[in-house]
Amino acid sequence: MEPAHSGEPNQSPLALRTRARRRGITVGLMTKWEYATVPLLVHATKQILDTWGEDGWELVQVVPGPNPEQLVAYLKREKG
């Protein structure tokens, strides 16, 4: 099934938001994020993540670090 077409050519998101505003339609803005990479110590993982979480950071992913005993956490939070 093809998506419904408004009859207008494809336009940039900015042009679409501007046109919606002119018509009195409220359009949400895209959320802006900031990111951090944090080395995790195996014996203190929960404590480290809890500390960052208290500051509004959300865990995105944990990956192996440069050595077998280290992990790296990727975190994000809304810019504000």
How are the SSEs ordered, and which strands pair?
Blueprint: H1 13-22, E1 33-41, H2 45-54, E2 58-64, E3 70-78
Antiparallel strand pairs: 1-3, 2-3
**Shape annotation:** elongated
Structural class: alpha+beta
Number-wise, the strands total: 3
Distance between the termini: 40 Å
Using the CA coordinates, give the radius of gyration.
Answer: 21 Å
Structure, explained:
- The chain has helices at 13-22, 45-54, and strands spanning 33-41, 58-64, 70-78.
- By secondary structure, the protein is an alpha+beta fold.
- It has a domain at 31-78: Alpha-Beta Plaits.
- A hairpin with a 5-residue loop joins strand 2 (58-64) and strand 3.
- The chain is elongated.
What does this entry show, briefly?
The protein has 80 residues and is of the alpha+beta class.
List keywords for this structure.
alpha+beta; DUF4177 domain-containing protein; Alpha-Beta Plaits; three-stranded antiparallel sheet; 80 residues
